[in-house]
Structures are given as structure tokens and as C-alpha cells.
Amino acid sequence: MKACYIHSAVSISAQNTFETDLNLSESNPITSKKANANHPQYKTYIAPGALRRMATGVKMGVTAGKKALEKANITNPDAILTGTGMGCIEDTENFLNALIANDEAYLTPTSFIQSTHNTVGAQIALALQCNAYNNTYVHGALSFESALLDGQLLIKNDDSRSVLVGGIDELGKEFIDYTLLVEDKKHGVQVPFSEGASFFVLSSEKQEKAIQLNDIKTFSNITEQEVPTVLNEFLAENNYKPKDIDAVICGNNGSVYDSYYSKARAIFPITTSQLHYKHLFGEYFTASAMALYLGVYILKNQQIYDTLIIGDNSKNSIKTILLYNQFNGRDHSFILLSL
Amino acid sequence: MGIISAIGNSVCENLEALLASKSGISSLSSLQTHHANSIKVGEVNLTNTQLSDVLNLPKNNAFTRTALLGLHAAKQALLNANITDVNAYKTGFISSTSVGGMDKTEMHIKEYCSNKEAQKYINSHHAGDSTQKMADAIGITGFVTTISTACSSAANAIMLGARLIKAGTLDRVIVGGVDPLSKFTINGFKTLMILSDSNCRPFDANRTGLNLGEAAAYLVLESQEIVDKENKKVLGYLAGYGNANDAFHQTASSQNGEGAYLAMQDALKKGHLVPSDISYINAHGTATANNDITESIAIRRVFGNTVPDFSSTKAFTGHTLAAAGAIEAVYAVLALQENVIFPNLNFKTPIATTHLHPVTTVKRKEIHNVLSNSFGFGGNCSTLIFSK
Amino acid sequence: MSNLIQELKENIIELLNLEEFSVEDINDDDALFGDGLGLDSIDALELMVMLDKDYGIKLTDPKEGKEIFQSIAVLADYIEKNRAK
């Protein structure tokens, strides 16, 4: 079994992450209930003929995907894997609303075609003329993790050399308001709902200062009480102890389910840096891809912005990072990264 | 394995219908749409209430039709595989769907603000919801995920399951897919002008488009270790799998069927098989003008002048979208078990340029390897090979 | 006729999101598909719906569209002769 490395990480998010890599020294305050991404000029990255049909998520995904490949000097990856929780919700809303408004008359195909969940993966393949393995995962808060797990499997077990993996979710215009409507005001998600696309090139090739994706493990359901056991087991399977972990990045979103993160954090000594990010990047099904982007950035640059830190930052050197995410107490994922 | 489709609510019923050449295609009755008189569909003959009762779900459940059909088939699969303790081994669940909770969304979206009762379906819209509900109902808490690559979805779910067992990540995994009929997909395919107003005719020169269908099917994949340890009866082996992207167009296939060709080649290679090892091809064969010609060309490219017996079973079930790969995986295993090739209904005239004649009546012969194709929008092409 | 041509150009640009084109960029005889405007089979389906919705012309076979959608001039001519509204 081979090792799996991360050669590039690119993110479009509510903050300044795309044009010049991460810059949180002047972070965009996100205070409303919905926070749009800080969108780049998509014309620079996508041909007009293709761009004219693309909704926000497809634009974000294709652009972030292309840039991740460029940064890793890959023209044709051995696989294209995407994860998206809500899929192409903008075009889904468009087609459904046209269907309802015109009572099934005068419907046109474009928004229907673009509403399928695999649109981003397909459009990247089309742009690259890439015939390789192509798959799309759509499992709520584990959508991106499932794609990442597939990518890791391809590198470690199936002879792939480079794999493009990304997570994409767009806010859309209507459905998000229904989501907010049923969200428990007091105990539910307190950070804004947002959108973004984060893409990575996984590789079997060990470069200088290579960042390794050691392992990823997901659980559909675990109880709060089981978190420490499950986490300790995951670390042990990778020959780590809690004291070996330099930083933990958790997906706290202000809901009552943050208690799961408290249980996880409690197994680490005070020397382990505790980080969060959803107060800056918002919540969405593939927000955890954003956390992976942050993890890669921190390992590469050995720099942690204060705004990400809970409590004090005690570490000077960050070599190993654990990511933990869950949504409403289910769909748990643990990801281990090291330098 | 477990299945529910227009030709039956169990594996047995599906086999009986296939052997009797009895199609499940009919006029639409379960949905209100202006297109009801201009299309034919493959409907499952149980209502949501009936499914809910059979599954012993509480009256106020928030199961979409997707989750109901899926759970019906998944429970059968567990029973059929003699699994009593689902957590006796490292067990995963991989489902697939293209519409997710759309059947409820399209019914209630404009009343979500006013109708409290309907609000329970808001969080059922996303594609992972039906999978979560099924996994919870059968007690799987570990690895659970959902794939959506349009009409090749279930084939990719089966493929991932096999790879996870091969890698040792899982010992056992329940894999498959589900899609109910919905106004959303009926209207979507209608705009593409590929819905036939009569029973579909796969691979016929005068084919007039596809019939949509609804269905769910799941298969239990187990490691050799479990089989040995428990002395289990093996229904078949997944010998090879291939996944390629056509990279040609968002909906249409390339003229030389490149993606389909690559998927079939890859599956043969991974299975250490040569074209002459294939006894039967269960084709994607949707009966659209575009699919059937490009799939025929791709089959010719792989098999040359000695194309094995082949048929599309879409004229029985309709095109069941994300579920199709699992439905046809069940049929592939049945073909291996029964040594039979299921007929391609409604075929009369071969396509002029490729001259391919599918098998049109039930044909008995020794079957060793079945190749099953599933192709989808976005150029997603997948091939599975099942062996004795 | 010239009003119809102007109307068609405006509607097609909006309908198909041809942001990089203005009405002046499209000549009456430019090919709509392939090298000209670069439209494809999905656009043809969009245009068929436009014919139905705006001019009451119902086409049922995408192949018919090929003849009619050669250029703006050909399309306008066809609409003049067949329009029901």
C-alpha cells in the first residue's frame, strides 16, 4: 500500500482564499443568515461557450478544480471525484419553478441537464477532455469525505498517480430559506449558511515538504459518549497518540451538537492547538473541504491566523493535524494530515 | 439481493416476469401530469402508504418514496443473504439516487412556509437523506454513503463496494440504488424529446425513445473470508468493473462511444478476461436514438464481429435511472444462476450501420460471465462483469 | 421582417445567455450552429420551445430544427410563413 500526498489545495469561499491563497488578515465579516462566496472573475478560467450555461456551483467547482490541477502541474488526472451535499440546487430550483409556474408547459432542457449532481465532475472532464474514472458523492455532510476516501483508495490501492478531489455547494435562492425556516433558532446552527468549492490534487509522488493524507474515516452515526473511543481508535490505527497531534480543526457551528467536538477536544493535551473555522466560512454540507484546505495551508506555511484559534496558540511547529466534522450529531468524519 | 420494480416486488417475481416476457410498462397512474397520455412508464404497484405499512413504519414518518422503495429492496437483500446481525462484521451501505427527495419536494415546495405537516420533508430533499434513513432502519452506523452519477449511479455504488472489500476497509457492504418516478424527471426528459409515447424498442432501427421507470435494488457483497467462515452460498462474483468518462457532451454520447468502449475494456482488463469470455451482455439500451447507436458502435469496437448474445431489459422495467445498474446487476446474477438470457422486447429491425440483433426470446444456455453496461448524463460510463 | 429579425436576435441572446454577443455582432446570414454563433443541440431544443411559446409553431422532431435554424434570416422567413401568433 502506497502513501497518499496532497500536492495542491485551492478554495473559493466567503473569505479571501482564491486569488492569493489564504488571507485572513482582513477577514470578511459574515453576519447575515446567508453568506455568499467571494467569487472570482470566472471568465478568466472558463470559455464563454461553457460559462453561459453554468450556475454558481458549477462555476466555482470548475474554476477551483482547474486551478488545483495547474498548481500541481497536472494536465490529465487519473480520476475526477466530487462531493456535493445539495447538488446543483440553483438549476434544480430553476427547473422546478418553471415547471410549477408554467404548469409543465414551455420547459427548456438547459436547467434540467445542469441540475444533475454530477455536473461539476462532468464539466471538468469535458474541459480537460479527460476520459478517466469519474465519480460524484452526494451524502450530506459526508459528500466531500466520501470523494476523498475514494481518492485515497485510488492512490493507496489502485495504482492511480494523481487524483482531483473536490467539494462544492452553492447557496441557491429558495431552498436555503426553507432550511433556515426549520432550523431550531435557539439550539440549531448559529453561524451563517454559506457556499464554496475546495479542490485538491492527491498524488502517490512524495515531493519535498510533502503533506501526507494519512487517513480518513467516516461514521454515519455515533453517540457523543462514543466519540473519545472512536477517535482514540482512529489515531491508534495510524500509530498516533493524542499528544502527537499538534492541531485539531473542528467544525463548530454554534449548535447544541458542538458538544461532540468538546468530547473530542477533551482527549488532547493543552499543548494541542484547538481551531475552528465555520464562524468565518459558514456552514454547508461540504464545508469540511474548507477545513482540509486550512489544514494543508497551516502545514505548508506553518502559520495559524489568530482568528482560527480557540484559546491560546501554544505550538511553534505544526506537523500533524486532525480534522473532525459532523452535522447535527451524525455524519462524522475524522481526517489525519501530516508534514 | 433484493429488488422492487415494475415487474415485481421481489427477486422471484422479477424472474418470473423476465422468463414470461411480461413487460411492466403501462400508462402512468401514480402521478398527476399533463404528459400522462403521451408517455409510458414502469411503475411499482405499491403506493407510499402500502410500502410504509409493509415496512412497519410509524404513521408520521418522513420517508420519501425514494427511501420507501430503497428500504423495501434493502431489507429483502439482507434476508436473502441470511444476515441476522448486521454488525457482526465491518458492514457498510452504499446507495445511489438521482432524484433524492424530489418526489416530496415537487409536491410541497410552495407550501413549506404555510403547511407545518409538509415541513418534515424539507430536510429530506438532499440525496443522502434516503440512504441515511435506510441505513438507520437496518442498523448500519459505520461507513454509509451515496453516489449520484445520473444513470450509471448504482453501477458505481457496486464498484466502490467491491473496492472497499478488496482493500480490507469493509468485510461486507450492501450496495445498490433507487429512483422513484417524479414530475421533475418526466418533464426533464420530455424537454430533451427522448420520451417514447409507446413501449420502448431498444436497439430497433425505428426506436422512438425511452420509458422512465421506478425501482430499487440492493446486493450484499461479502469478502471471501466471510464466505469461508460461514460456509455461505455465493450467488455470483463481481469479476470486473470499469468506469470512464466520455468527455464529449453533457447529455449526448460521442459518435464512437469512447466512454462506453473504455469502460468495457477496463472491466475486461480488471477481470482478467478477454471478449470471448463474455456469454451475455446486459446492455444499457435505453432505446433513445443516441444511446443505442453509440452503445452498438462501442460494443462492435470491443467485440468485433463476434458480439456475444445481448439484450436490454429496459422494455421490462423502463429506464430506472440511478437504480438501473443495480436492477440489471440482479438480472445479471439471475442469468448466471438460471443459465438464461432475458429477451430484448419489442425489437424488429436492426440499426442499419451496426447490424446488431439482440436476443428477442428467452434463451437457455450455459452462462459464465455477464457484462452489464450503465451510462449516464455527464459522460459517466460504467461496466460491471458478473461471473459464476 | 426587420423588426422580427431584431426581435429574434435580442431574444436569442437573452434566452441562450450569449453574453459575449450583441445584436450588432450577429449578421442575418451567420450560421447559428457550428462556426457562427457556436450553438449546439441543446440550444436547438431551447429554440424549439421559443418557436412554440412566442410564435405558436410546434415542432416535434429535433431534426426539423436543423433546416430552420440555419441562420437568423432563414428562421425569420420560416416564422413569417408559419406563425400562429
From TrEMBL, chain A:
The keyword Transferase is assigned to this record: yes
One Pfam entry name: Ketoacyl-synt_2
Q: Name one GO molecular function term.
A: 3-oxoacyl-[acyl-carrier-protein] synthase activity
- Which GO BP terms apply? fatty acid biosynthetic process
Q: Please report the stretch or stretches of sequence annotated as the Beta-ketoacyl synthase-like N-terminal domain.
A: 44-175
Top-level taxon in the UniProt lineage: Bacteria
InterPro entries this protein is in?
A: Beta-ketoacyl_synthase, Ketoacyl_synth_N, Thiolase-like
Q: Which UniProt keywords apply?
A: Transferase
* Any one cellular-component term (Gene Ontology): cytosol
For this entry, the protein name equals 3-oxoacyl-ACP synthase
UniProtKB/TrEMBL annotation, chain C:
Name the InterPro entries on file. ACP-like_sf, PP-bd_ACP
Q: Which residue spans traverse the membrane?
A: none
Q: Where is the Carrier domain?
A: 1-83
As recorded in UniProt, coiled-coil segments are none
Q: Name one Pfam family in it.
A: PP-binding
The molecule here is called Acyl carrier protein
Q: Which organism is it from?
A: Bizionia saleffrena
